[in-house]
Amino acid sequence: MSSATAEKYASNGPEPRAVIAALGRSTDMFPAGVDTEGLIAGGIDRSTLRKLGSDGPKSFWAGVDHAGDICLVTVLDVHITTAAACSAPKDVEANGLDLSAAGDSTQPDGDPIVAVLLPDSADAEPITAGKHPWTRYGDNLLVAKQSDIPEDVTYEFVRKRGHSGPRIRYPG
Fold first, then answer.
1. Is a pLDDT exceeding 60 seen at residue 6?
2. How far is Cα of residue 133 from the mean position of the Cα atoms in its chain?
3. What is the mean pLDDT of residues 117-128?
4. Structure pTM?
5. What is the SS3 assignment for 147?
6. What is the pLDDT of residues 20-33, one digit of tens each?
7. What DSSP letter does each residue of 22-57 carry, written as one string?
8. What would you measure as the largest C-alpha separation in the chain, in angstroms?
9. Which of 80, 36, 39, 37 has the alpha carbon at shortest distance from 58?
10. What's 115's DSSP letter?
11. Alpha carbon of 48 to those of 70, 82, 172: distances in Å?
12. 1, 47 Cβ separation under 8 angstroms
């Protein structure tokens, strides 16, 4: 991570690794064919990208952009269809980070998905009554087919013991 990126943490809140511990793990090989500079305005620092999980051709990554924001990146299919969303670490800590993305609809599993990245302080098990559509990847990521998420249900995530803050809600 560049020193210029590190300097920006002061205005964005805590260091990203303090919010998403997976950002401190060893480097995973992000697909070489994806232009990380073109994913979002200002670009994502490729050296910070860490794999959170995968399901067939889909893979889910967390990283840090050049402004010091935490980013959620999805690679959705064999054609390397990508999507990304970024937010300041203090906002990810308070609200999590969600992303809706659609892959190649001609592929067998090209359905649009929703991914929710939760901070380390949140429990990734929703407290909403009944069965939920989420597949959990590690401690921080939940993914579901968009069509499986009822429009009239809000999913809430409580803080883990020893952490304060309001519940995180999806949709917020």
1. no
2. 17
3. 92
4. 0.87
5. helix
6. 888 888 777 888 88
7. GGGSPPP---TTS-TTTSSTT-B-GGG-EEEEEETT
8. 46
9. 80
10. E
11. 10, 17, 27
12. yes
- What range defines the domain where residue 40 resides? 3-170
Whole-angstrom Cα distance, residue 94 to residue 156?
13
Domains in the chain, number: 1
Determine the 3-state secondary structure of 122 from DSSP.
Answer: strand
Spatial contact of 44 and 71, defined as CB atoms under 8 Å apart: yes
For tokens 């597949």, what's the residue? Answer: 135
> How many degrees, rounded to 5, is the angle at CA 100 between CA 34 and CA 36?
20
Residues written for the chain:
172
Complete DSSP assignment for 1-22? --HHHHHTHHHH-S-HHHH-GG
**Residue 78 tokens, joined:** 């064999």
pLDDT digits (tens, 9 = 90+) for 144-156: 999 899 888 899 9
For the CA atoms of 54, 17, 86, 38, the dihedral, rounded to the nearest 10 degrees, stands at: -70
pLDDT at residue 54 greater than cutoff 70:
yes
Tokens of 166: 């309001």
Judged against a pLDDT cut of 90, whether residue 79 lies above it is answered with: no
Report the C-alpha gap between 67 and 87 in whole angstroms.
10
Rounded distance between C-alpha atoms, residue 24 and residue 108, angstroms: 34
